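Write out C-alpha coordinates for Aldo/keto reductase.
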Amino acid sequence: MSVLLPAGTPKLGLGLAALGRPGYINLGHGADLGARKDVEAMRGHAWAVLDAAWEAGVRYFDAARSYGLAEEFLGDWLRARGREAVIGSKWGYTYTAGWRTDAAQHEVKSHELSTLERQWPETLAALGRKPDIYLIHSATLATGVLRDERVMVRLAELAGQGVRVGLSTSGPGQSGTLREALAVRVDGVNPLSVVQATWNLLEPSAGEALAEAHAAGWTVVVKEGVANGRLTARGLTGKGDVPAPLRHEAERLDARPDAVALAAALQQPWADIVLSGAATREQLTSNLNALNIKPNTAALTALARPPETYWQERSALPWN
Protein backbone atom coordinates (compact mmCIF):
# COMPACT_ATOMS: atom_id res chain seq x y z
CA MET A 1 0.00 0.00 0.00
CA SER A 2 2.97 2.31 0.52
CA VAL A 3 3.88 2.69 -3.16
CA LEU A 4 1.87 5.30 -5.06
CA LEU A 5 3.82 5.94 -8.22
CA PRO A 6 4.05 3.79 -11.35
CA ALA A 7 7.15 1.63 -11.72
CA GLY A 8 10.06 3.57 -13.10
CA THR A 9 8.75 6.94 -11.95
CA PRO A 10 11.32 9.09 -10.09
CA LYS A 11 10.89 9.08 -6.33
CA LEU A 12 11.43 12.83 -6.39
CA GLY A 13 8.23 14.90 -6.27
CA LEU A 14 7.64 18.64 -6.49
CA GLY A 15 6.19 20.63 -3.59
CA LEU A 16 4.55 23.97 -4.42
CA ALA A 17 5.04 25.79 -1.11
CA ALA A 18 7.52 28.19 -2.76
CA LEU A 19 5.58 28.52 -6.03
CA GLY A 20 2.03 29.32 -4.94
CA ARG A 21 2.52 32.50 -2.90
CA PRO A 22 4.89 35.47 -3.06
CA GLY A 23 6.25 35.03 0.47
CA TYR A 24 7.90 31.98 1.99
CA ILE A 25 10.69 31.19 4.46
CA ASN A 26 13.16 29.56 2.05
CA LEU A 27 16.48 31.40 1.95
CA GLY A 28 16.50 33.76 -1.03
CA HIS A 29 12.91 33.00 -1.99
CA GLY A 30 12.04 36.59 -2.90
CA ALA A 31 14.99 36.90 -5.28
CA ASP A 32 14.21 33.51 -6.83
CA LEU A 33 10.78 34.71 -7.94
CA GLY A 34 12.08 37.90 -9.57
CA ALA A 35 10.71 41.42 -9.40
CA ARG A 36 7.16 40.63 -10.52
CA LYS A 37 5.09 38.79 -7.95
CA ASP A 38 1.56 39.53 -9.13
CA VAL A 39 -0.76 36.55 -9.55
CA GLU A 40 -0.37 36.13 -13.31
CA ALA A 41 3.41 36.45 -13.20
CA MET A 42 3.58 33.82 -10.49
CA ARG A 43 1.16 31.56 -12.32
CA GLY A 44 3.45 31.64 -15.35
CA HIS A 45 6.50 31.06 -13.18
CA ALA A 46 4.86 28.08 -11.46
CA TRP A 47 3.79 26.59 -14.77
CA ALA A 48 7.35 26.87 -16.11
CA VAL A 49 8.69 24.89 -13.15
CA LEU A 50 5.82 22.38 -13.42
CA ASP A 51 6.58 21.90 -17.12
CA ALA A 52 10.24 21.28 -16.34
CA ALA A 53 9.33 18.78 -13.63
CA TRP A 54 6.98 16.91 -15.97
CA GLU A 55 9.61 16.78 -18.71
CA ALA A 56 12.02 15.27 -16.19
CA GLY A 57 9.54 12.50 -15.33
CA VAL A 58 8.21 13.89 -12.04
CA ARG A 59 4.66 12.67 -11.43
CA TYR A 60 4.00 13.57 -7.79
CA PHE A 61 2.95 17.12 -6.92
CA ASP A 62 2.22 18.46 -3.44
CA ALA A 63 0.12 21.50 -2.50
CA ALA A 64 -1.92 22.82 0.43
CA ARG A 65 -4.72 25.27 1.12
CA SER A 66 -2.22 27.60 2.79
CA TYR A 67 0.17 27.71 -0.18
CA GLY A 68 -1.55 30.76 -1.62
CA LEU A 69 -2.88 29.77 -5.05
CA ALA A 70 -0.79 26.60 -5.39
CA GLU A 71 -3.81 24.31 -5.76
CA GLU A 72 -5.34 26.59 -8.38
CA PHE A 73 -2.07 26.92 -10.30
CA LEU A 74 -1.64 23.14 -10.24
CA GLY A 75 -5.23 22.34 -11.19
CA ASP A 76 -5.24 24.83 -14.07
CA TRP A 77 -1.91 23.47 -15.31
CA LEU A 78 -3.12 19.86 -15.26
CA ARG A 79 -6.24 20.76 -17.23
CA ALA A 80 -4.45 23.00 -19.72
CA ARG A 81 -1.79 20.38 -20.41
CA GLY A 82 -4.20 17.45 -20.35
CA ARG A 83 -2.08 15.60 -17.80
CA GLU A 84 -2.75 13.12 -15.03
CA ALA A 85 -0.49 12.95 -12.00
CA VAL A 86 -0.49 11.86 -8.37
CA ILE A 87 -1.60 14.86 -6.32
CA GLY A 88 -1.27 15.50 -2.61
CA SER A 89 -2.81 18.38 -0.69
CA LYS A 90 -3.40 19.40 2.89
CA TRP A 91 -5.95 21.08 5.15
CA GLY A 92 -5.59 22.85 8.48
CA TYR A 93 -3.93 26.17 7.64
CA THR A 94 -5.67 29.15 6.02
CA TYR A 95 -3.63 31.56 3.90
CA THR A 96 -4.08 35.08 5.29
CA ALA A 97 -1.21 37.14 3.79
CA GLY A 98 -3.34 38.76 1.07
CA TRP A 99 -0.56 38.22 -1.50
CA ARG A 100 1.88 40.32 0.54
CA THR A 101 5.37 39.33 1.63
CA ASP A 102 5.33 41.79 4.54
CA ALA A 103 2.09 40.57 6.09
CA ALA A 104 2.04 40.41 9.87
CA GLN A 105 0.55 36.92 9.63
CA HIS A 106 0.83 34.60 6.64
CA GLU A 107 -1.34 31.68 7.73
CA VAL A 108 -3.63 30.63 10.55
CA LYS A 109 -3.73 27.08 11.88
CA SER A 110 -6.94 25.31 12.85
CA HIS A 111 -7.57 21.58 13.01
CA GLU A 112 -11.26 21.91 13.84
CA LEU A 113 -13.82 19.88 11.91
CA SER A 114 -15.26 23.14 10.58
CA THR A 115 -11.93 23.90 8.89
CA LEU A 116 -11.84 20.48 7.26
CA GLU A 117 -15.43 20.85 6.02
CA ARG A 118 -14.65 24.29 4.58
CA GLN A 119 -11.33 23.44 2.98
CA TRP A 120 -12.18 20.09 1.39
CA PRO A 121 -14.61 21.62 -1.16
CA GLU A 122 -12.16 24.49 -1.70
CA THR A 123 -9.49 21.95 -2.63
CA LEU A 124 -11.87 20.14 -4.97
CA ALA A 125 -12.76 23.38 -6.72
CA ALA A 126 -9.14 24.55 -7.06
CA LEU A 127 -7.76 21.24 -8.32
CA GLY A 128 -10.82 20.34 -10.36
CA ARG A 129 -10.61 16.79 -8.97
CA LYS A 130 -10.04 14.87 -5.78
CA PRO A 131 -6.46 14.81 -4.54
CA ASP A 132 -5.00 11.32 -4.31
CA ILE A 133 -3.58 12.17 -0.88
CA TYR A 134 -5.15 14.53 1.65
CA LEU A 135 -3.24 15.35 4.82
CA ILE A 136 -3.78 17.10 8.13
CA HIS A 137 -1.33 19.98 7.76
CA SER A 138 1.33 19.95 10.51
CA ALA A 139 -0.52 17.76 12.97
CA THR A 140 0.88 17.89 16.50
CA LEU A 141 -0.09 16.37 19.80
CA ALA A 142 -0.86 19.87 21.06
CA THR A 143 -3.73 20.47 18.64
CA GLY A 144 -5.42 17.23 19.67
CA VAL A 145 -6.58 16.57 16.11
CA LEU A 146 -5.66 12.89 16.21
CA ARG A 147 -7.98 12.45 19.20
CA ASP A 148 -10.86 14.37 17.63
CA GLU A 149 -13.35 11.61 16.85
CA ARG A 150 -15.44 13.78 14.51
CA VAL A 151 -12.41 14.70 12.41
CA MET A 152 -11.23 11.10 12.26
CA VAL A 153 -14.67 9.86 11.24
CA ARG A 154 -14.82 12.45 8.45
CA LEU A 155 -11.36 11.46 7.24
CA ALA A 156 -12.45 7.82 7.34
CA GLU A 157 -15.35 8.78 5.05
CA LEU A 158 -12.90 10.34 2.58
CA ALA A 159 -10.73 7.23 2.78
CA GLY A 160 -13.79 5.18 1.94
CA GLN A 161 -14.15 7.29 -1.22
CA GLY A 162 -10.67 6.32 -2.38
CA VAL A 163 -8.65 9.25 -1.01
CA ARG A 164 -5.50 8.33 0.89
CA VAL A 165 -5.68 10.40 4.09
CA GLY A 166 -2.95 11.06 6.60
CA LEU A 167 -0.92 13.81 8.21
CA SER A 168 2.10 16.00 7.80
CA THR A 169 4.27 16.60 10.85
CA SER A 170 6.39 19.48 12.12
CA GLY A 171 8.33 20.40 15.22
CA PRO A 172 10.62 18.49 17.58
CA GLY A 173 7.80 16.10 18.49
CA GLN A 174 7.31 14.60 15.03
CA SER A 175 8.00 11.05 16.17
CA GLY A 176 5.48 11.16 19.01
CA THR A 177 2.83 12.62 16.73
CA LEU A 178 3.39 9.95 14.11
CA ARG A 179 3.25 7.13 16.63
CA GLU A 180 -0.05 8.46 17.94
CA ALA A 181 -1.31 8.60 14.35
CA LEU A 182 -0.30 4.97 13.81
CA ALA A 183 -2.58 4.02 16.73
CA VAL A 184 -5.71 5.85 15.49
CA ARG A 185 -8.76 3.66 15.02
CA VAL A 186 -12.23 4.32 13.61
CA ASP A 187 -14.48 1.28 13.90
CA GLY A 188 -11.37 -0.80 14.50
CA VAL A 189 -9.53 0.43 11.41
CA ASN A 190 -6.94 3.18 10.99
CA PRO A 191 -8.13 5.48 8.18
CA LEU A 192 -4.71 7.16 8.02
CA SER A 193 -2.08 5.70 5.70
CA VAL A 194 0.25 8.53 4.63
CA VAL A 195 2.74 10.69 6.48
CA GLN A 196 4.69 13.67 5.14
CA ALA A 197 7.48 14.54 7.54
CA THR A 198 10.52 16.75 7.77
CA TRP A 199 13.69 14.71 7.45
CA ASN A 200 17.03 16.13 6.43
CA LEU A 201 20.69 15.96 7.37
CA LEU A 202 20.20 18.62 10.04
CA GLU A 203 16.98 17.09 11.45
CA PRO A 204 16.89 13.30 11.05
CA SER A 205 15.17 12.57 14.38
CA ALA A 206 11.94 11.22 12.87
CA GLY A 207 13.73 8.46 10.96
CA GLU A 208 12.93 5.60 13.32
CA ALA A 209 9.23 6.48 13.50
CA LEU A 210 9.09 6.88 9.72
CA ALA A 211 10.57 3.39 9.37
CA GLU A 212 7.78 2.10 11.63
CA ALA A 213 5.17 3.80 9.47
CA HIS A 214 6.66 2.35 6.31
CA ALA A 215 6.72 -1.12 7.86
CA ALA A 216 3.02 -0.68 8.68
CA GLY A 217 2.31 -0.10 4.98
CA TRP A 218 2.08 3.69 5.07
CA THR A 219 3.36 5.90 2.30
CA VAL A 220 6.21 8.08 3.58
CA VAL A 221 6.83 11.45 1.93
CA VAL A 222 9.88 13.51 2.93
CA LYS A 223 9.60 17.30 2.98
CA GLU A 224 12.17 20.02 3.63
CA GLY A 225 15.02 17.82 2.44
CA VAL A 226 17.23 20.89 1.95
CA ALA A 227 16.07 22.53 5.19
CA ASN A 228 14.42 25.58 3.58
CA GLY A 229 17.58 26.33 1.62
CA ARG A 230 20.09 25.83 4.42
CA LEU A 231 21.46 22.65 2.80
CA THR A 232 22.13 24.32 -0.54
CA ALA A 233 25.01 26.38 -1.89
CA ARG A 234 23.49 29.31 0.00
CA GLY A 235 24.65 27.77 3.23
CA LEU A 236 23.20 27.80 6.71
CA THR A 237 22.71 31.57 6.85
CA GLY A 238 22.44 32.42 3.16
CA LYS A 239 26.06 33.57 3.02
CA GLY A 240 27.58 30.50 1.40
CA ASP A 241 28.48 28.87 4.72
CA VAL A 242 27.92 25.29 3.56
CA PRO A 243 28.81 22.85 6.38
CA ALA A 244 32.17 21.24 5.69
CA PRO A 245 30.97 17.60 5.52
CA LEU A 246 28.29 18.52 2.99
CA ARG A 247 30.69 20.67 0.97
CA HIS A 248 33.30 17.91 0.84
CA GLU A 249 30.79 15.27 -0.22
CA ALA A 250 29.43 17.58 -2.92
CA GLU A 251 32.94 18.14 -4.24
CA ARG A 252 33.64 14.40 -4.23
CA LEU A 253 30.49 13.69 -6.23
CA ASP A 254 30.84 16.75 -8.49
CA ALA A 255 27.35 17.78 -7.41
CA ARG A 256 25.76 20.70 -5.64
CA PRO A 257 24.97 20.52 -1.90
CA ASP A 258 21.19 20.41 -2.49
CA ALA A 259 21.51 17.30 -4.64
CA VAL A 260 23.62 15.59 -1.99
CA ALA A 261 21.11 16.45 0.74
CA LEU A 262 18.16 15.14 -1.29
CA ALA A 263 20.09 12.02 -2.33
CA ALA A 264 20.69 11.28 1.35
CA ALA A 265 16.92 11.38 1.90
CA LEU A 266 16.30 9.20 -1.16
CA GLN A 267 18.68 6.60 0.25
CA GLN A 268 16.54 6.10 3.36
CA PRO A 269 14.86 2.68 2.90
CA TRP A 270 11.55 3.96 4.25
CA ALA A 271 11.30 6.99 1.94
CA ASP A 272 8.73 6.49 -0.83
CA ILE A 273 8.78 10.07 -2.16
CA VAL A 274 11.17 12.94 -1.47
CA LEU A 275 9.94 16.42 -2.32
CA SER A 276 11.88 19.07 -4.14
CA GLY A 277 10.83 22.54 -3.04
CA ALA A 278 12.43 24.20 -6.05
CA ALA A 279 11.34 27.75 -6.84
CA THR A 280 13.12 27.90 -10.23
CA ARG A 281 13.88 25.60 -13.14
CA GLU A 282 17.59 25.85 -12.29
CA GLN A 283 17.00 24.72 -8.73
CA LEU A 284 14.86 21.85 -9.97
CA THR A 285 17.57 20.70 -12.37
CA SER A 286 20.09 20.69 -9.54
CA ASN A 287 17.65 18.88 -7.22
CA LEU A 288 16.98 16.20 -9.86
CA ASN A 289 20.68 15.29 -9.88
CA ALA A 290 19.96 13.66 -6.52
CA LEU A 291 18.58 10.74 -8.53
CA ASN A 292 22.01 10.13 -10.06
CA ILE A 293 24.35 10.18 -7.07
CA LYS A 294 24.93 8.09 -3.95
CA PRO A 295 26.53 10.08 -1.15
CA ASN A 296 28.34 8.48 1.74
CA THR A 297 25.66 9.17 4.32
CA ALA A 298 27.93 8.08 7.16
CA ALA A 299 30.14 11.08 6.36
CA LEU A 300 27.14 13.38 6.79
CA THR A 301 25.75 12.23 10.15
CA ALA A 302 27.76 14.89 12.00
CA LEU A 303 25.42 17.53 10.54
CA ALA A 304 22.52 16.41 12.75
CA ARG A 305 21.38 18.91 15.36
CA PRO A 306 19.17 18.47 18.44
CA PRO A 307 15.56 18.70 17.18
CA GLU A 308 14.78 21.59 19.52
CA THR A 309 17.71 23.58 18.12
CA TYR A 310 16.74 22.85 14.52
CA TRP A 311 13.12 23.93 14.97
CA GLN A 312 14.08 27.07 16.88
CA GLU A 313 16.34 28.07 13.99
CA ARG A 314 13.65 27.25 11.45
CA SER A 315 11.09 29.36 13.27
CA ALA A 316 13.45 32.33 13.06
CA LEU A 317 13.71 32.21 9.25
CA PRO A 318 12.16 35.37 7.76
CA TRP A 319 9.34 35.35 5.24
CA ASN A 320 10.68 36.81 2.01
